[in-house]
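Self-study notes.
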Amino acid sequence: MPAQPLLCLHGWLDNANSFLPLANALPDLSLLALDLAGHGHSSHRSADAHYYLFDYVADIATLCRQQGWQQLIVIGHSMGGMIATVLAASFPELVSKLVLVDSLGLITTTPAETATQLRKAVISRLQSHQKQKPQYATLAEAATARQQQSDFDLATAMLLTERGCEPTAAGFSWRADVKLREVSAFRLSEAQARAVIRNLQCPVLALMSAQIPVEIRQAIQHFKADYPRLELVQCPGGHHLHMTDAVFCANQIRRFVSAEPV
C-alpha cells in the first residue's frame, strides 16, 4: 500500500463525496478526496476572483508542498482529471501515476475564437450577479433535482447533495459558488494543450465511460496520441462511472497502482 494517500479530485459542481463509492471499493488503499475551491465545504474565492483551471492547479501544488507530498498517485474525474493532468505535466515531481476518470485532454479554444470567448465570459460575469440559487424544502428534493441533471440514481445523487447543500431560511440550497457557472475567459489553444500533455512523464490510466459524451469522445480522438504513456480502458456506466460502477473502476485502479513502472 502506498505510504501517501491517493489524492482524489472531483468534477465540476461535484464534491469530495463523489469518491465515497470508490473508497468503499478500495478498503486496502488510502484515498484522500478534497473539496475544490467553491465546491462542497471549501471556501469560495474572493468576490473579485473567478475560477480558472490553472488556479486549481496552483491550489493543489501548494497543498502538496505544505504536506511534503511528492510522487503522489492522483485520481481525477472530469474537470478534476484536467486539473490533475496539468499538475502532473507542470510538476512531474509531485505525481508518480495518474488515473483519469472520464477525462482526457483539455478544453480548448481556437485563436480565432479568442475574442468571442472573452465576450461570452464578460457577459456571463455580468449575469451571474443577478442569479439566485434554487431553494428546496428538503434534501430529498434537492437530490431529485441533482439526479435529473445526471446519469445516476437517487441514492448516488444524495451522496453529492448531502455534502453539496447547506441549510437556509427556506430549507436547503447548494453550497457551490454561483460563479462556477460563469464562462471561462481563458482557454488554451489546441497546440498549447497538446504541448502540456506531451510533457507528462508518469503513466496514465484513463477509465472512460461506455456512454461517452460527444465532447469527451472528440477529446479522445484529438489527444490520445499525445499521452506518452497512456492505457485506455472502457468501463460500463456513464460519466460518473466511479460512483455507479465503483467495483469495476476499483479493480482497474488497484491493478494500475500495484503494477511496477515500465
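Second protein, same conventions, sequence then structure:
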Amino acid sequence: MTVKRMRILFMGTPDFALSILKRLCEDGEDVVGVVTQPDKPKGRGYKLTPPPVKVYAEERGIPVYQPERLKDGAFEETLRSLSPDMIVVAAYGKILPPYIINYPKYGCINAHASLLPKYRGASPIQRAVMNGERETGVTAMYMDEGLDTGDMILSERVAIEDDDTFETVHDKLAQAGAEAISRVVKTAKTGELPREKQNGNESTYAAKIERADRVIDFNESACAVHNKIRGLYPFPRAFTTTPCGATLQITSSRVADDAEGVPGEVVSVCKDGFTVKCSDGCVTVTGVIPEGKGKMSAADFVRGRKITVGDVLGAAPVNGNDE
C-alpha cells in the first residue's frame, strides 16, 4: 500500500541531527513535531542557548518539545496527541523508553553514525578516525531497548581520507545520514522496509571520550598519534605536557620521516612547526593551543621560544588545564 503523507516526529539535538531534519523538510515530509534537549548555558556569560535543531524548527513553524525527562510516561500524552506514523531519531542524547520506541506504526528509526555493528555507542565518529579506519558510514536502524543493537534497514558509506578530522568526517556523515533517512521514509511509504539482524560477534563499542583518551602517548606509533590528534579535532582535542608541566593541546599534525630520539623528544623544528619522535616514526606538529592561550600555528609557538629541540613532551604529570 502506498502512503502519500506520513506523520513524522523528529528527535535530535546537534548539527548532525539538523542535516537530517532539513532533508526531511526539503523532501516535503510532514514533520509534526521536533523533540530536542533543553537549552544549555554557553559562553562566558552562560547564556541559555537553544540546540541547532530547535532554532531551525521554530523558523519553519514546527512545534518544538524539550522534555526534561521521558521516563514513566512523562511524554506519553504529548506523543499520543502528535500521533506520529514514524519517529526519526538522530543524536537526540537521551535513552528512549519502550512506550516511545514501540509507538509508531512504521517504527522508531535511528540514524547511527557508523557501519553497524561496528562502533556502537556514544563516540563512533571520533573512535573510527582515532583507530585509523578507512571507511565509515551511517546506518539507519530500528531502535530497540539495547545500545544501537536494533535491526538494520540500510546504510550509506563514507570514505575517511588521510587528512580528514573528526569535523570533516562528521560533516560528510551528516549528509550521508540525511540521504539514508530520506531513502528510509520514501521506501516505507511505498512498501515494507527491510530488516537485517546485527551480528553481535562483530560488534565493537565506541565509548564516550574521556580525559584520559585525549592524552597523547608518544610511545605509540606516529600513525596512532596522528590519528588521535585528527580524530579529536576540533573537539575535545588531544593534548600533552611541556617540560614545565603546562598542557599543550595539539590541533593538527602530519606523519613525518623517522629520526633518532626518545619518544616525546622534539627532534627538529621546521618552517611550519616542530617534529616529535614516536615509538615508530615521527609526527610534525603544525597547530597548537598552549595552556591559557588561543589557537596558534606551531611555527609561532616555536618562534615564541616556548619549545626547542631536545625538549621532551609528555614527561611531566598531566594535571594542568587542558580546556
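Instructor comment on the second fold: The chain has a mean pLDDT of 95.
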